[in-house]
Structure to design on (614 residues):
């Protein structure tokens, strides 16, 4: 039997890997991928808790998170396309017009 | 239960391996002869004879084709992304073959009898697009690139009506397990869900054709304009793998149509009542006959209809098929509510 | 025993593929590692008796979201973006911050107190099948959030279309 804590640790590690990717990469598409990794880290802990607490609320929440992730990906990628059309780049460092 | 001195878990694994071998062997044989069948059918429809040289009536043609593609030179474009280029056809074939795991060919003969059989099939059919996208992208050629852009847009658009058209069936059967769906159909007075779900069946057929990239929706391949589209740069065995994936996908979609709409391995109850002697015929025969009819339908419309334009294809998917399948879901659930609860939700 | 072996296999692959996915130079390779990651997370869900969630994970993440990513990557054709620097100059700082937060979360987990046990034990779920169980909960207790989620998706569809549409001059 696998203890519930192991799943929680795994979920925390995956979440932090995603966060590291999000704050250090310059490529917007990889940053969006990192957000998906963070979502998945949270989902692991929700499903694990739902299983160990014998309550389906966690899994319903995962379902909603997946729906929101899909919405986020669609909007985010539409913004990436818009950005590329106007600036010819998807590197965040090149977007420095507001630099004082 | 220990048979032949083996522990039970080993015995269970052995049974599954044997089942997998049987399914793979049968499907691969059918894939090989599906190409022969297609060329013969289309030849006859166009007033030709089709393959006639190798063996009597060209019956050994698929074997000759296989040997030829096996020994052909494997050409890799210079600017290709090599790992992805190698992986793409294998990924495509893997997804196509993995979906066979949940298809029951007759009563009780299924590799994995899981409760989410239909969802598993959707998952695998949505993975089939990866072979196409990655193959087209990794080739680094304009034709392949156009082909795979078209394919990815087409497959993600048509997956939606494909899934929605089966929701009616799920509602009627009350299960996602495919064996359970077939059993529910044999209890249903009509015998086949096509009688009640004709709208769903119509949507399903069109989206299955688009999902497997067959004519008249074969824009990702489009021999005349894109020179075979996403697999322009592939040759030899890798080309054959793509080909096998496509035909396996056709067989999977046809069996899904047979299982979900045409009653699977069972006959309608009223037919069995009229002709009880038909009950001795094993179920796999009925399954195979229905499957061949569906495959013939694929070839028939390929030989008959011209290819659609790309904007027409997208318009059919989003403006006709998705609304129709939603209407079907609403009608089915309202009728089910009246039959089961007398109108009170 | 065999449970723990499976758990270690899945978690090792999940961690390795997520590290690979965020460090690859080519976006395409990153997306492929993500694909592998989603499969292993779906395997983990199966392991936790959540078969419906695992199927949804593959259908939505692998079948729709990742295809969307691939589609955008191909549309932008980013072959010369690979040569640029991939990380910000102060990436060790990012590593420090994220590992610090990891430490905080792990420490918080030491004192975690779970709530009361619910009524959906494994026996109950197996009797009804997982799909029926989750459907029952979703359409009774969580009907309103479900409708809100559908509204979010609708907004996303319309928003994506409006944003990415080419302005006709």
């Amino acid at each position: 039997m696998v203890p519930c804590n192991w799943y929680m640790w795994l979920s925390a590690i995956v979440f932090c890997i995603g966060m590291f990717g999000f704050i250090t990469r310059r490529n917007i598409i990889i940053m969006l991928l990192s957000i998906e990794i963070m979502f998945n880290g949270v989902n692991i802990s929700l499903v694990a808790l739902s299983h160990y607490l014998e309550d389906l609320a966690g899994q319903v929440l995962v379902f909603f998170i997946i729906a929101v992730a899909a919405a986020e990906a669609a909007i985010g990628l539409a913004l990436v396309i818009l950005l590329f059309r106007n600036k010819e780049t998807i590197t965040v460092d090149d977007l420095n017009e507001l630099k004082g | 239960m220990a048979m032949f001195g083996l522990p039970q878990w080993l015995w269970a694994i052995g049974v599954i391996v044997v089942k997998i071998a049987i399914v793979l062997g049968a499907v691969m044989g059918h894939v090989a002869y599906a190409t022969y069948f297609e060329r013969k059918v289309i030849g006859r429809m166009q007033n030709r004879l089709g393959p006639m040289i190798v063996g009597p009536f060209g019956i050994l043609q698929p074997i000759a084709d296989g040997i030829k593609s096996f020994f052909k030179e494997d050409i890799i474009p210079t600017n290709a992304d090599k790992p992805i280029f190698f992986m793409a056809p294998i990924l495509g074939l893997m997804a196509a073959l993995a979906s066979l795991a949940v298809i029951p060919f007759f009563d009780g003969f299924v590799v994995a009898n899981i409760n989410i059989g239909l969802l598993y099939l959707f998952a695998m059919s949505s993975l089939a697009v990866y072979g196409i996208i990655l193959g087209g992208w990794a080739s680094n050629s304009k034709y392949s690139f156009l082909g795979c852009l078209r394919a990815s847009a087409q497959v993600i658009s048509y997956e939606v009506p494909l899934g929605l058209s089966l929701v009616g069936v799920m509602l009627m059967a009350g299960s996602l397990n495919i064996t359970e769906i077939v059993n529910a159909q044999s209890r249903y007075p009509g015998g086949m869900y096509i009688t009640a779900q004709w709208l769903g069946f119509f949507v399903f057929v069109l989206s299955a054709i688009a999902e497997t990239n067959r004519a008249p929706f074969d824009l990702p391949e489009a021999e005349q304009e894109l020179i075979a589209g996403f697999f322009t740069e592939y040759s030899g065995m890798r080309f054959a793998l793509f080909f096998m994936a496509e035909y396996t996908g056709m067989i999977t979609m046809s069996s899904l149509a047979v299982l979900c709409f045409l009653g699977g391995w069972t006959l309608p109850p009223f037919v069995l009542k009229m002709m009880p002697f038909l009950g001795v015929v094993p179920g796999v025969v009925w399954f195979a006959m229905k499957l061949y009819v569906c495959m013939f339908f694929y070839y028939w419309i390929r030989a008959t209809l011209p290819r659609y334009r790309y904007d027409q294809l997208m318009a059919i998917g989003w403006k006709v098929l998705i609304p129709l399948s939603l209407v079907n879901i609403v009608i089915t659930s309202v009728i089910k509510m009246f039959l089961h609860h007398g109108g009170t939700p | 025993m065999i449970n723990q072996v499976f758990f270690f296999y899945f978690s090792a692959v999940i961690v390795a593929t997520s590290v690979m996915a965020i460090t690859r130079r080519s976006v395409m390779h990153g997306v492929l590692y993500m694909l592998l990651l989603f499969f292993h997370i779906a395997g983990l869900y199966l392991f936790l008796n959540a078969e419906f969630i695992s199927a949804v994970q593959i259908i939505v993440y692998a079948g729709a979201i990742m295809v969307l990513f691939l589609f955008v990557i191909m549309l932008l054709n980013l072959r010369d973006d690979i040569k640029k620097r991939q990380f910000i100059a102060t990436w060790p700082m990012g590593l420090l911050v994220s590992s610090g937060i990891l430490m905080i979360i792990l420490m918080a987990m030491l004192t975690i107190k779970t709530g009361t046990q619910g009524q959906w034990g494994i026996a109950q779920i197996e009797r009804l099948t997982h799909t029926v169980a989750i459907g029952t909960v979703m359409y009774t207790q969580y009907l309103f959030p479900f409708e809100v989620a559908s509204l979010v998706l609708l907004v996303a569809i319309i928003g994506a279309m409006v944003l990415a549409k080419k302005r006709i001059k």
Summary: Chains A and B do not touch (no CB pair under 8 Å). The radius of gyration of chain A is 17 Å. DSSP finds three helices and no strands in chain A.
